[in-house]
Amino acid sequence: MKTTSIMQRNNVNVLGSGDRTIVFAHGFGSDQTAWRQQVETFAPNFRIVLFDHVGAGKSDFSAYSPRRYSSLYSYAEDLLDLCAELKLTKSILVGHSVSGMVSLLAALVEPDCFSDLIFLDASPRYLNDVGYYGGFEQDELDAFYEAMSANYYAWASGFAPIAMATEDKPELAAEFARTLAATRPDIAQAVAKVIYQSDHRADLSRLKVPTVILQASDDIAVPPQVGEYMADKIPQSKLVRIDARGHLPHISAPEIVTSAIAQCLAA
Amino acid sequence: MKTTSIMQRNNVNVLGSGDRTIVFAHGFGSDQTAWRQQVETFAPNFRIVLFDHVGAGKSDFSAYSPRRYSSLYSYAEDLLDLCAELKLTKSILVGHSVSGMVSLLAALVEPDCFSDLIFLDASPRYLNDVGYYGGFEQDELDAFYEAMSANYYAWASGFAPIAMATEDKPELAAEFARTLAATRPDIAQAVAKVIYQSDHRADLSRLKVPTVILQASDDIAVPPQVGEYMADKIPQSKLVRIDARGHLPHISAPEIVTSAIAQCLAA
């Protein structure tokens, strides 16, 4: 028994209607509202499940602790709690960024919860390694953590436009900067470190659920090689490059992401 | 708030007296009673903390679920809960087998809990990999899981003497076979898989706590190369080969393990 229910803890919202269920899982510095444009399209024909990871959005912040969330496994456990609570089987999971690996870890434990995984700009490892290009060297990540810790709000306003990569629509970067700034700095810093230091490469080959890897270009967090790497390692996977830029294409190029998801679902 | 306290959940026992605290953490198929001979030696001069991992010994079995314990991070979280409950700082952690990596993961999150880690027959990865000898191929592990699942009790009585490696003292193998047989088969099978498929090699270099790696010979689970690998990767570490055989030297050669621990503490 938990003092707050899973529904409250993760601010779970269920809407739409249809025989099939799509669970949308948000990424770092964001929350369930990031999916609003996809929700609008799919709600008439699908049951939609939205939630905020603990520490994000309107989740129960008292459930957060750096000890509990020191790895992605706890987020995966939360996701499986949610699936159990809603009795979800064979649901479609769309996971942005860190939620790609979170859904993978969940699917390794209880594959029957999911019929399909759709990763959007996900990565199993951000750090370069021998024979692996993740996009970052440790000293770059250390400088990144240092900047976050020195002045979180300054860091957020600098990071948002780079992540969004939409110079022509500065209002989108401003929106992401606001979401980031709304995150508790101590949580944002701890979570960023957990994500950027994670390494789930060895887990990819164990995934039994069919997976589509959607990848945008000019993504500060995920270089194109990472999508190719995952497609190579995940047994039933397909890499789809989408005509969108930046790390948050579901916000910056919503119709392209929506259409890519629709194609996955129709296939 | 949890329905059972941490003290009950992990069947925590505190005994002995002294300025310094030693936490003894048991391995797979075993429980806190495995440390009885070390406890006898150290209790007069140290405060001793004993516990059973969830799913083992007299822990609260209702706290176990394969979802919650799908990785070693949850065991590490439990260990940190215990340290917080007992307000342990700078304690000495002696971890057998899987508890080596469990204590490492805990020490990465809250290094101040520990002054020293002492691993006894621990391994960061059991599977061989390119450039790494862990001792097992995947098909060997699959056969191992298959045997556990086909007839757990037959498996336990076959595995115990191999793990104990004390042909001259069959009563020790019989004792370990009884502890294994007392474990719920579904839990033993799930936990064995979580352990044997784990890979924490990348975490070794991040450990900031001084670590002594005690390694016996003829250990079915941990070949000598693994101790050397850990000593090479963990920054402040020392490999100590002990004159004992098998995977449970704290039971089969208690005075040798006790004396090795005493030397670590005196250093």
TrEMBL record, chains A, B:
Work out whether the entry's keyword set contains Cytoplasm.
Answer: no
Q: What start and end residues bound the annotated signal peptide?
A: none
Task: Answer yes or no on keyword ATP-binding.
Answer: no
Q: Which UniProt keywords apply?
A: Hydrolase
Family annotation (InterPro entries): AB_hydrolase_1, AB_hydrolase_fold
AB hydrolase-1 domain ranges (all copies): 21-254
Q: Tell me one GO molecular function of this protein.
A: hydrolase activity
Regarding protein family, the annotation reads: Belongs to the AB hydrolase superfamily.
This protein's name: Alpha/beta hydrolase
Organism field: Aerosakkonema funiforme FACHB-1375
